[in-house]
Amino acid sequence: MKIAIFFSFSFLLLAVQSQVDYRVIKVAGQITVQRTGENLTSGSVFSDNENLRFGSSNSRAAVINPEKGRFVIEPANKNNFAASKSNFIPGLSNISSRSGGTFMKNVFEIKNFFKDSVLMFDTTFVVMRLYDYPVNDSSFFFITYINNLEPINKKLVNKGDTIFFIPEQIAKIDGNPIEINSIKEMQLFYYQLNKPISFVSSFAPVFVDEQIKTEIGIILDELKDKSYLEKFEAVEAYLTEFYTAPDEENLRAVLKNYFGLRN
Fold it and tell me: What value does the mean pLDDT take over residues 151-162?
């Protein structure tokens, strides 16, 4: 009897030791822990031996474990997602930051930077040392977007040759704030006195709101014992996979100013 109890205890101990806990970064769709009936949300913790139920074939979640790394979980059988087991897919890693960087040396680089979708932090800055686009009191960049079918023009703030995109200022009309995520597209123009206005590019802004900051915070908290480089690359890869590739210098500034993370 004692031997049976010993082996039962040993088996239970081994099962507990082999269990891996994951913390949820972000959920797209609905994923429920079958045992508890609770839906996974940002910050939830669950073990890898839990049975998960997916609300749709497209439901997925980004999860992280300090030792195992970051994964995306989704139904292994998308045709029968309601009864499917979980598929743990390793998250992207070793991702290069947004091409172009914050130091623009020519027109091609600025057009390449401001295309497709662009991650917009509390303040996004770019250095434009361009002969083609001198910046002074009578020459400047501005953006245009549509709000309630009306075009809105916003002159961009600059200090020397550094241009700043400040969402709080951009998303104001006649001094009144608007819902920033209602801005789906921006067009970047350049104005120079006594010359035609130049169209530069159009892009979709992805504003880093409190939810995205929470997701970044979860990653940094789970990797608190890792090096700066490991933390930076993990956040960079996550943002690239779920939103769009961030600019390296702007991301470093946000990690330092908002999260206190220093190299």
Answer: 92
Half-sphere exposure (CA, 13 Å, Cβ side) for 102? 20
Closest CA to 62 of 83, 91, 38: 91
Residues near 189 by beta carbon (within 8 Å), at least 6 away in sequence: 141, 142, 143, 144, 197, 198, 199, 200
Phi and psi for 122 in degrees, rounded to 5? Answer: -55, -40
| Residues facing residue 28 across a β-bridge | 60
Q: What percentage of the chain carries pLDDT values higher than 90? A: 72
Look at residues 210, 136, 123 and name the one whose alpha carbon lies nearest to residue 169.
123
Nearest-angstrom CA–CA distance, 44 and 22: 8
Return the residue matching tokens 């549509």. Answer: 146
Give the residue-averaged pLDDT of 12-34.
Answer: 81
Element (H, E) at 10: helix 2-18
Shortest CA distance to 231 belongs to which of 246, 221, 244, 245?
Answer: 221
State the Cα–Cα distance between residues 55 and 157, nearest whole angstrom: 45
The answer to whether 22 and 8 have CB atoms below 8 angstroms apart is: no
Cα 175 to chain centroid distance, Å, stands at 28
What is the rounded CA–CA span in Å between residue 95 and residue 100? 15
Rounded CA-CA distance 78/58 in Å is 8
Distance CA 178, CA 27 (A): 26
C-alpha span between 56 and 82 (Å, rounded): 7
| Gap between the Cα atoms of 23 and 69, Å rounded | 11
Q: Band of the pLDDT at 131, cuts 50, 70, 90?
A: confident
Structure tokens, 68? 């195992």
3-state secondary structure 149-177: CEEEEEECEEECCEEEECHHHHCEECCEE
